């Protein structure tokens, strides 16, 4: 009898789960170009449940980086990153794969330069990387994309963008 009730309970849970995921989010691939001193596009929108691949390309002449977060952190009056990191806050670890301009692939550890905490991908001119993750509920809201290279000068020069995550 207990087993029977458990079966009914499980069947009910499955139906509920199926009803909730009747409109699964489509996987998306977004290309973000970096240059002096901008992200293009400067605004992206994602949805909870989506599997996302960000294709980062540095088309500039300088090293650029991508950080994603909220509340810019100041160090010695210079912007140096975010108080709240997009991935850390949500407990999500993205997969980062770097590819050089020659198409040769290699993996770096996430780089944590002085004053930088949280997620950061820095690219040499001509370098590319992909960042893959699944959008979770903890990511809902508005976030900033930013580059803090050259002791924050890029951010001050306007190298930032907006990331909006819809429920
Ligand atoms: Cu930059």
CATH superfamily: Cupredoxins -  blue copper proteins
Provide the residue-averaged pLDDT. 85
Number of continuous helical runs: 3
CATH domain fold name = Immunoglobulin-like
The number of distinct structural domains comes to 1
At CATH level 2, the architecture is Sandwich
Rounded to an integer in angstroms, the radius of gyration calculated over CA atoms is: 19 Å
N-to-C order of helices and strands: HEEEEEEHEEEEEHE
What is the global morphology?
globular
Describe this structure in words.
With 167 residues, the protein is of the alpha+beta class. The chain has one domain: Cupredoxins -  blue copper proteins (Immunoglobulin-like), CATH 2.60.40. The chain has helices spanning 2-20, 86-90, 153-156; strands at residues 28-35, 38-40, 43-47, 51-58, 64-75, 78-85, 95-99, 105-106, 121-123, 128-134, 141-146, 160-166. The strands form 2 sheets. It has a 6-stranded mixed β-sheet with strand order 2-1-4-10-7-8, with no helix packed on it. A hairpin with a 5-residue loop joins strand 7 (95-99) and strand 8. The termini are far apart. The model is unreliable at 106-115 (pLDDT under 50). The structure holds copper (II) ion. The site of copper (II) ion (CU) has 6 residues, from loops.
Task: Furnish the topology, listing elements before pairings.
Layout (H helix, E strand, L loop, with lengths): L1 H19 L7 E8 L2 E3 L2 E5 L3 E8 L5 E12 L2 E8 H5 L4 E5 L5 E2 L14 E3 L4 E7 L6 E6 L6 H4 L3 E7 L1
Parallel strand pairs: 1-4, 3-12
Antiparallel strand pairs: 1-2, 4-10, 5-6, 5-9, 5-11, 7-8, 7-10, 11-12
Copper (II) ion binds next to loops.
């Amino acid at each position: 009898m207990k087993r029977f009730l458990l079966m009914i309970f499980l069947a009910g849970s499955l139906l509920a789960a199926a009803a909730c995921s009747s409109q699964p989010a489509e996987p998306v691939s977004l290309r973000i170009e970096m240059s002096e001193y901008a992200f293009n596009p400067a605004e992206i929108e994602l949805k909870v449940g989506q599997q996302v691949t960000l294709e980062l390309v540095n088309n500039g002449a300088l090293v650029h980086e991508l950080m994603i977060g909220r509340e810019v952190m100041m160090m010695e009056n210079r912007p140096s990153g975010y108080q709240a990191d997009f991935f850390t806050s949500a407990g999500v670890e993205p997969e980062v794969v770097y590819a050089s301009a020659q198409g040769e692939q290699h993996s770096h550890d996430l780089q944590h330069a002085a004053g930088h905490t949280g997620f950061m991908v820095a690219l040499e001119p001509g370098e590319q990387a992909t960042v893959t993750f699944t959008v979770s509920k903890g990511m809902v809201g508005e976030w900033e994309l930013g580059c803090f290279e050259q002791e924050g000068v890029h951010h001050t020069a306007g190298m930032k963008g907006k990331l909006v995550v819809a429920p």
